[in-house]
Write a structure and sequence with these properties.
This protein is α/β, with parallel strands linked by helices. The protein is 30% helix and 17% strand. The protein has helices at residues 44-62, 172-189, 207-217, 253-257, 261-282, 295-298, 315-323, 325-340, and strands spanning 72-74, 97-101, 110-115, 129-131, 153-155, 193-196, 220-227, 234-239, 242-243, 248-249, 286-292, 304-311. The protein binds zinc ion.
């Protein structure tokens, strides 16, 4: 079984699109034709963005009444993202699904809680491939990205197996799930509906599918991760053309992906709330809120943020990650409360 590569770079775990140019592509992942939705650098850009905003308004109205099958929500058949998501080994389409938890009295807000990564013992999680950017390659030209053609496909999600150095047992997918389940319960108690990308250790779902499902079901998305890289502190990310992780800028990234200015501003606010609440509650160092170019953002149609709570290979951080999960989860719930109750 192929083991997961070692991570030495800051935030490599979140699979920054720009940091994976060397990953080769599996045979049989044919490029598909798609009708472009957003055109960059033309007079249509503004109109397309306005149309996207109007569509978001419609979507958010519909989200108060999503239909589930015994608490499971399936990605709609006509999702524009379907053609870019990973397929089963036999080429068939997997169930792209999320798990919905209803509060006793709904406060009108739905939060998508995403525990980063998945099952470490599922090698297929590292072999299924997904397009980095869910648009036609021709639209990527202004971004000056190398991730086009065959290089434009990478693993859908990466299961990390490096252990927390304080408790020497907990992996990142385990940490993120434990915090997410605590956060889920706190939010339900506050009246939020919660949608989760996974609820167990043996589940895997691609980063693109997480965002696509979030966009159909929820008002905001929070993706929970822990970091490695011999550093210390909390980092919060939101979508932007400048990628803090690689230090590169990708002109037009947000516009090409159809990420609206409104959603960028709201994502920033959400990320800032997360950063300040987590660091104040746990004592983790505040390493700031930054823009990033990540696949989980590329498929996003709602305000979204990704939080690297702390460094699992730093002794001080690792102890907090291991022993202060209640504080981490409650600070995240408070950040979400602040977001909706300005
Ligand atoms: Zn991660």
């Amino acid at each position: 079984m192929r083991r997961i590569k070692k991570y030495n770079l800051l935030c490599a775990c979140v699979l920054a699109i720009s940091a994976v140019a060397s990953i080769s592509v599996s045979a049989g992942m044919a490029k598909r034709k798609v009708t472009p939705v957003i055109r960059y650098g033309t007079a249509e850009t503004t109109a397309a963005t306005q149309a996207a905003n109007q569509q978001e308004d419609k979507n958010s109205e519909g989200k108060s009444n999503i239909i589930t099958d015994k608490g499971v929500y399936y990605l709609s058949e006509n999702s524009k993202y379907r053609q870019y998501l990973w397929k089963n080994a036999d080429g068939s389409t997997p169930d792209y699904k999320a798990y919905v938890f209803e509060p006793e009295v709904f406060n009108g807000h739905t939060v998508f809680v995403d525990p980063g990564h998945g099952d470490n013992n599922a090698p297929e999680a590292n072999q299924k491939r997904e397009k980095y950017y869910p648009v036609e390659d021709v639209l990527l030209k202004p971004m000056k990205t190398s991730m086009v053609g065959e290089k434009g496909y990478g693993v859908g999600v990466e299961a990390r197996d490096s252990k927390n150095i304080y408790d020497k047992t907990e992996t990142e997918p385990e940490f993120s799930l434990k915090v997410a389940l605590k956060l889920k319960q706190l939010l339900i108690n506050k009246g939020y509906r919660v949608v989760m990308s996974r609820t167990d250790f043996n589940q895997n779902i691609s980063n693109g599918a997480r965002s696509a499902l979030a966009g159909e079901t929820s008002d905001i998305m929070v993706s929970i991760h822990s970091n490695t890289g011999k550093n210390s502190g909390t980092l919060s990310f939101y979508p932007g053309d400048s990628d803090y992780i690689s230090g590169s800028t990708y002109p037009g990234y947000t516009s090409i992906m159809g990420i609206t200015k409104t959603n960028i501003e709201l994502s920033k606010k959400l990320a800032e709330n997360m950063e300040s609440n987590i660091t104040q509650a746990t004592g983790l160092k505040n390493k700031g809120t930054h823009t990033a170019v990540l696949r989980i953002f590329s498929y996003s149609t709602i305000p979204t943020c990704l939080v690297e709570v702390g460094f699992a290979d730093n002794t001080t951080d690792a102890k907090i990650l291991s022993t202060k999960k209640d504080e981490i989860a409650s600070s995240m719930a408070n950040a979400i409360d602040q977001y909706f109750n300005k």
